[in-house]
Amino acid sequence: MKFFIYGPPGSGKSTVGRRLADDLGRLFVDLDQQIEECAGMSIPEIFAGSGEADFRKLEYEMLEKVCSSSHPAGVVALGGGALLNAENRELAEQSGLVVCLRATIDTLLKRLERDHVQRPLLGGNIRQKLVDLLDAREQHYASFTRVLAVENVIPGELSRQIQIMSGNYHVAGMGQAYDVLIGSGGLSDLGVFLRTRGLDRPAVLVTDKNVGKYYSGPVLETLRAAGIKTSEMRIEPGESNKHIETIVRMWEAFAEAGLDRNGLIIALGGGVVGDLAGFAAATFLRGVDWVNIPTSLLAMVDSSLGGKTGANLSKGKNLIGAFHAPRLVVADPDVLATLPETEWRAGMAETFKHGVISDPLLFDWCGQGLLAIKQRAEAVVRRAAAVKAWVITQDPYEREYRKVLNLGHTVGHGVELASGYRISHGEAVAIGMVIETWLAERCGICQQGYSERLKKTLSTLELPTGIPADLNREEIIRGMKMDKKRADGKVLFAISTSIGEAIPAIELSNWEKMLLEA
After folding, report:
1. Is residue 350 among the annotated active site residues?
2. Confidence band for 172, pLDDT divided at 50, 70 and 90
3. What is the C-alpha to C-alpha distance for residues 420 and 374, in angstroms, rounded to an integer?
4. pTM of the shown model
């Protein structure tokens, strides 16, 4: 997908476009600059010598060139009138996503007065010319579906908003950068996505028996249509199968399929499938490439991102593992139509967590209940995944800030283990967020009543908020002390101090005594 940044003169198309290209790891192209290089003269000189009609002809020719699938441009800044022509607009909209930037006249004027670029349509009385131009183009600019107000918004935030509206992210910082693509129909386009990224290699598709009966057929079809020779293996579903014996079965299947170092492993399923297949990929032949196709809400918004792979031991969750980033993540929210109700709730715990630590709007959406979430599922997945993508880009190896993603997980993992995984990961994290926040309140780290606020919203999502009476608190504590988040013998907690703010890792005094009382 190409991105076209459009809007009136002074709206910041080039600035935002460059930032977006940097964030997505794409090539940035300024169309006006390309026209000048092609013509060998400046745009004012083209207007003065040949007139606007000839300029528009050059503009179309250059737009047609950058829109071609073979052109490397990923983000294109357009001139302020480039899409007035219906043919130009159709060309851009068929080639990618057009985002129109808007600002007040005063803001545009201030920017234009600081800019030394000559604009042939704004010569003379620049204010009056700008007013006239905006009046003439008002309906045109307002007709675009994707419009962003740039008033008092920094380029980095505008880039983030464009990524959210498109469902496109680029995660870097772990040696292997990769794209995350979230959108309806993504599953059927998987073969094309792989081929265009040079990943059309012999592959093994790993899925579980529940997901496989719905989606392995369509996935195999799109892979084979792209010329990708693929074999399949299915594992038993569920957290209870997330152990080394399952990984051994995967290694054996890879060897039987003749997979070599140039092969590809494709994980199709929820968090268990992704974690296991990713770890198997990290360790088979000392590391082969893999692609993650999450099919659960929890995996789409959380576990599929970040390159953490692993399996459980009897003493605790994810005690064996590796950082091994996938080459691509493709999440198709359409597959959530077959997701069981319990899995929806489990995924909403991580979605809610992302709203708590970084996205107040997402937190507000969660407060509207599960039905409202389902009605805007794709938008919810995009926003929640954006939080995870942003955090892990800042701290790919979880040395400091990324630990905010552990909110609810210290107590949560203890609850999971003590329940013998009867309580799902999402349910345990929901319980953990409330209990950990309550502990923080008692330590004076956050305001009294904050845990009740989280509890109320989690209840609206039909998630548990307290430790079940039949669970042994001492077993939970033992599980927490074995958790991989401990450091120097200390159990550390990620704590939210308010919506949108969190502390990555902190020790809480007397937490064991308080937990026994919870």
Report:
1. yes
2. confident
3. 30
4. 0.90
